[in-house]
Here is the input.
Amino acid sequence: MRRALLLVLAIGFIALGAGQEADLFSPLEDVYRLIHTYYYRADQVTDEQLLHGALRGMIESLGDPYSAFFDPEEYARWQESLSGEYSGVGMEITIRDGKVTVVSPLPGTPAEQAGIRPGDWIQAVDGKSTEGWTLEQASMAIRGPEGTPVTLTVQHPDGTVEDITILRARIHVDPVRAEYLADEHVGYVRILRFDFDTPAELGKALYSFPLDELQGLILDLRYNPGGLLQSAVGVASFFIDEGVIVRTTGPSFGSRVYSSHGNSFPNLPLAVLVNEGTASASEIVAGAIQDHGVGVLVGRKTFGKGLIQEFVMRLPDGSAIKLTTGEYFTPSGHPVQDVGLEPDIEVKWPEGLAEGEDPDLAAALEWIHSQVAEPAKVP
Here is the structure.
């Protein structure tokens, strides 16, 4: 493992060049020797711990909430979450203005049932202040074994503060849910996250609708925290016949353009439901649909996460480094990061809604019917 630590130092020298850069990083080697020579419990500290600490410290010094170092256990848990099943409370978080902030709870999860809402500031986890925490520190503290409790001290957007105790559960998230609204002749599809299987599941949902009577589609991206970029491109391709889906730029890959894979599904009036919990990959899809004019956004302004993360380094022990490597823009070049997307039809939710009432859905259905859609023909 000492060899691995020296390898990391060598990479630093190579990346920066010889000469004074080597002198810049030489204190790392000096500290390594210092610990093994003088630290009174040096026999209790492994080279792996020192290596991971050095890597984690370098990444944390970037001040980027989306870049992270994962030790082998953390990386395994992250991979597990991509499968759509993990043990936790079921919510997406980020760091905004230095605060651990909820992007959105996932529907039907303990977090949603306990009253966690988009925009909540998590001030403490089990009594420990989250001040100065990284995104990964917060995620690991909130997750835990199924059946165990976690208490979150939460400040809601209206300023009220409360302790919310949530029992962790096995979280299973189906990426796509669909329903045919027969009385309206409208297909409703909700995408909860953008995983490897999301485009294929969306295709199954769309072609399950009776195309001979279908008059419109509703794509629900509310409280969708995002996921994989390629998944977003695949989803958007079902609604955009040709052209750019998203533009990206970054120092390592320059400028890239991701285009539609081609669409064989009938072009129908399309309403996309969005809100403050619509983020990342879901904003890619919403932005592409809006820019191409193939649908309208209904609801409220989206979250505004327009950054790209990639795993750019894997170590032999199973640890990994995730870095923010670029930013993305809508097809017309509109930035998303810290800006979000404005809806075409803004919907304000009144207080005291009856159970089951959904003003966003009602506004979407009204717009679809206003288009006087002709039933689609089977392609």
In short: The chain has three domains: 2-70, 85-172, 176-370. The CA atoms of residues 93 and 102 lie 4 Å apart. Confidence is low (pLDDT under 50) at residues 1-7, 9-18.
